[in-house]
Amino acid sequence: MSMTAEEILLNCEKHFSFIATEIESLIVYIKNLLANCKRIDNSKFYEDKILSLIDKLVKQKEDFKKNTIDREMNKDTHIAIETYNEIQKYAEGTRDLLAELKLEAFSLKRDIVSKEQDMIFQSLNINKLNNLKELEHKLMISYEQDTDKLFIKNFFEDKKEVLINLNNEEVISLLKKSMVQENDYSKVIEKEIISSAIEIYKNDIETINILKEEMKNVLEKSNSRDTLLRFYKNFLKRAENESIRRDNITKIIKAVTDIGYIVNENDIRKIKEKNIVVIHATNKDGKTADFAVKFDGSLIYNWEGFEEHEHDEDAKAFLKKLREYNILHSDEYKKVYREPNFIKEAKLKVKQKQDKKEK
Question: Which superkingdom, per the lineage (predicted)?
């Protein structure tokens, strides 16, 4: 006898930690802007904007914790799902707001960098500089960011033949023009989005691959503000879903192992075209459990090799273990029991199809 069913997994812990990490990383990013700001902003115009943005994020962090992490999830399935849906809606709204606030922070950084460049150019005493090398050196030590130093170095190297025929004022004018082009709004925001994502997820190959896919799907067509915002929202949503699924897979393997099944490394397969991960587990009596973990959080499982409805006991023990790992679940639906003959016939059909393909 076999039993197949489908459920929705509710992994609140991973869901909320993902968004909380994004909020915290943005607060750190914005606080780092303050140091640059204080050097160039006598009027405190940018500093006030940054402090206002930090206040917004700290409040959002507190509200998010209160409305998600601190809320208790009742172990009763129906209440849990109702609460989960409510919390998830709030979390998704937070994620979208976070994308908007990130773009605001990146825009502020761009403005601060532009102001800093203007002040550096104004403070340069170029009349005492005798040659291009001295001018390049003076500019290099005027900037703190390695990216700015690299840009200046490349500017002098790439335009050497042109610069040699210009005076210092003309070189500065050409450099300013090049920097303005480099600081084009869309280019800067795109660069900041990508570099900040890589910094947060540098040890997470799957998430970086999602970033690359979204870049290809969206940014190759356009990089307007609306496009950049859409790109970042899509990336956050997909990265969050993939992060939750990976955590689900880890805990599914732990749970089924805890009740006496064995999962080998080769028994875990990702089927890319269907966007599912399949896990095969066996126990010492030859009984098997198969799990298909979907991208939307749902789980299909199949238990085989049991007498009567004995598989229900293993299924219950498995779901209990999942709850111990802080993964709640919906009621089973699409639940189907099959006789051994049905399974045998189904397997035979699959084998026949495979044999035809091989021929």
Answer: Bacteria
Spatial CA neighbour of 256 closest among 183, 337, 159, 321: 321
CB 80 within 8 A of CB 74: yes
Give me 101's structure tokens. 């606030």
d(CA 167, CA 318): 77
State yes or no: pLDDT of 235 exceeds 90.
no
Residue range 2-8+247-358, CATH number: 3.30.160.110
351: tokens are 């084998």
- Spell out the residues 6+ positions from residue 286 whose beta carbon is closer than 8 angstroms to its own: 305
Q: Quick one: three-class SS letters along 212-279?
A: HHHHHHHHCCCCCHHHHHHHHHHHHHHHHHHHHHHHHHHHHHHHHHHCCCECCHHHEEEEHHHCEEEE
Structure tokens that stand for 212 in this block = 């690359």
Tokens coding 44: 């405190």
Structure confidence at residue 254 (pLDDT)? 93
Question: Rounded to two decimals, what is the model's pTM?
Answer: 0.67
What is residue 126's DSSP assignment? G
Length of the chain: 359
What token pair was written down for 177?
């023009």
Please report the pLDDT score of residue 263 as a whole number.
Answer: 92
| Cα of 196 vs its chain's centroid, Å | 11
Strands (E), the chain: 2-10, 268-271, 276-282, 288-294, 298-304, 328-329, 333-338
Report which of 116, 131, 207 is spatially closest to residue 163, judged by C-alpha positions. 131
> Residue 62: pLDDT above 70?
yes
Q: Domains of the chain: which residue ranges? A: 2-8+247-358, 12-245
Cα angle: 306, vertex 307, 308; to 5 degrees: 115
Q: What pLDDT, in 10s, does the model give residues 114-172?
A: 777 777 777 776 666 677 888 888 888 887 777 778 888 888 888 888 888 888 888 88
